[in-house]
Amino acid sequence: MLLFCHDFFDTPFAMGQPSPHPPALLILAAFSRHGEALDWARDRAVGVWGGWAMESPRFAFDNTDYYRATMGEGLQKVFWLFREPIDPAELVKIKLLTNRWEEQYTAQSDWPEPRPLNLDPGYLTLGKLVLASTKDFAHRIYLDRGIFAEITLYYQHHRWQHHAYTFPDYRREDYQRFLTACRDHLYETIRKENAQ
After folding, report:
1. What confidence tens digit (pLDDT) does each residue in 158-167 have?
2. Any idea where the domains of the chain sit in the sequence?
3. Which of 12, 15, 45, 64 lies in the 20 to 30 Å Cα band around 174?
4. What is the per-residue burial (b if ≥16 Cβ within 10 Å, else e) of 40-70?
């Protein structure tokens, strides 16, 4: 039987209720051709967000030539997952802060590259990896103060899945192994808290 419009809208529906965001952990990606720059970024981040729960190996960042002109060759990328949960609404402030750190490091260093350090903050939940960006694109959602967010990866069928627009390096197996370990850490943290 077909429902006419007035029949459909007369059907009672429960209104959706706002609920707290599921637990999220801050993750910070840093890349540079200079190990000193990565160490500096780690120290700055720890000073603000406390100790990290996990640190990745320093991966060779060689999936694109996009940064060669501004950052040089032989780039390495490292991730830190921080212990304390964050409110995802803080992502705007976090990205603006890491942008300032990039500017500070560039101003105080004497490297030949115009951009010796790149910092990409985001957050990890059991279902997704979200990264902040200053650049708009079709798949990015505007947050505030010139900052956008994108779901870079999502977790489904026991593995990370990418979108058509996901950066090539985030499709790598070694990155995703580390992100799975981060997700496992978050899962155990949630399980222990729920058991108390």
Report:
1. 999 999 999 9
2. 22-195
3. 45
4. bbbebbeeebeebbbebebbebebeeebeee
At 30-84, the pLDDT tens digits run: 999 999 999 999 999 999 999 999 999 999 999 999 999 999 999 999 999 999 9
Q: Report residue 48 as tokens.
A: 């603000």
Q: Which residue type does 153 have?
A: L
pTM of the model: 0.90
Residue with tokens 């496992």: 184
Residue with tokens 């006419």: 4
Position 45, amino acid: A
CB-CB contact of 35 with 192 (8 Å): no
